[in-house]
Amino acid sequence: MNPSTRTVRITIILHIHNPSRHKRKVLDHVLGEYTNAQRELAQRAEPLLAELLCKCAFINAKGTAEYRPWYLMSGLYKLRCPSFAKLPSALRLGLCEDVAQILLGYVAQKRINEKTKFPFRGKRKHNRQMDPLEQLVHHPLTLQPRYAFRNWRDTAKRQTPIHFAAPYFPRSCDLQLHQLENQRWAVTVPLLPRKIGKTHTKFNFALAFSQGQREWLERGTPKVARLVKRADEYALHVALAYRVEIQPTRNFLGVDRGVFKRAACAVVDGEGRVLESFSGGHAIRTLQIERGRAIAAQMQRGKNVHRKHFRQARIQQTLHELANHIVARAKQQHARIVLEDLNLTTKGRFTQSEYAKLAFYLTYKALFAGLPKPLYVFAQFSSQICCVCGGEGERDPDNRESFACPECETVCDADINAAINIARRAMYRKRAWEQRGGYRAFHQSFVRLQSK
């Protein structure tokens, strides 16, 4: 293995394109049998859990007990529950790995809270979704006003979902991705065991994906996959591995995530000298305002607001473009990306913080570019400290994008000023500076750069 390269992985979602009725029945059969087998194997392992854990336990260097999942998987595989015969060998291994992770998580939670219940209780199995007309026979409508049946049918579908476990394919040899002649891709996966007497145990499925996912498929090697069903759509979550060349870094690129400028960036060298600065993501705020006005107009007209109104395809595309630009600049300047540790959580069912999304995009895009993971630094007073003298300044109340320092009379862009401070904090060592005045003395030490 070349020491100047490393392996990185990414998971992409490949939707199964227009499966036939027979293939849908096979997929539902496999999902149901895997769900039942997972519950059955976990319930069979519950009385033997202490014995299984003793065989896979060891004492680490800190003196605490840890467990080897592989030994637990081998112990679960020897239990040979009856549902194993209904699954192919590839899914049996994945089933044991899934149950082993569930049991280890249960044991870890049991240490914290003794009242933690076993994850699988009872003999409940998956049930097929009852058709609304079939439910109408058992639960007839008493009142039938206009649109009553349609509303009742939609409510019945929402209240009777099927929750399938996601079958896991742990071996790359069981997942065969191949490119067809018409520039499309297909996958061959084993779904049925050989002992059932069927003529076909492996099935081919055409895949639907975007242009970006096509590039990932052409460059990567499939390792593991999961089969997921959501809202009558089937998808494969495939983990792909890549070999990338490691890029040496000697500078730091600080990123300040704001409201109006989604990312203000500054590059500094190892001494704290500013090499360049730029900003981007100005259109994201405009897109958010447009989306909010559209939702408000929808509600004023008396119409319901659904999940589709909260889709942020344009915003995500802008974030991807911004992240690509930042990573390209970091690679060009041989710089490591530095972010603020904002620790933000968003309360919402349909939305997620764009700050967290940008950090996630920068993380995996930097890895694929050969750069190290972004470095997180503390965020206190990064926008209130002057990057020139280290004194305390403030934003202009009339122009929030302007920063003014009363000590050195410096006037500059507020977001760029914060980005410079964030980039320099990558060199901050608390033990070395806590006796010299803390982080404020650290920022004031860069005054020497102005005299050179």
Structure description:
A hairpin with a 6-residue loop joins strand 15 and strand 16 (402-404). Helix 1 (21-45) crosses helix 4 (89-112), helix 8 (282-300) runs antiparallel to helix 9 (313-333) and helix 9 (313-333) packs across helix 10. The protein has 14 helices and 17 strands. With 452 residues, it is α+β, with helices and mostly antiparallel strands. The radius of gyration is 28 Å and the shape is globular.
State the CATH architecture of the domain at 251-280 and 314-451.
2-Layer Sandwich
Which whole number gives the mean pLDDT?
81
Q: What is the CA-atom radius of gyration, in angstroms?
A: 28 Å
> Class of the domain at 251-280 and 314-451, according to the CATH hierarchy?
Alpha Beta
Give the number of DSSP strands.
Answer: 17
Summarize the main sheet: 7 strands, antiparallel
Unreliable sequence segments:
123-130
In the sheet with the most strands, the strands line up as 4-8-9-1-7-6-5
Helices, by number, come to 14
At CATH level 3, the topology of the domain at 251-280 and 314-451 is Nucleotidyltransferase, domain 5
The CATH superfamily label of the domain at 251-280 and 314-451 reads YqgF/RNase H-like domain
Approximate strand percentage: 15-25%
Q: Portion of residues in helices?
A: 25-40%
Give the CA-based shape.
globular
The span between the termini is: 45 Å
Structural class: alpha+beta
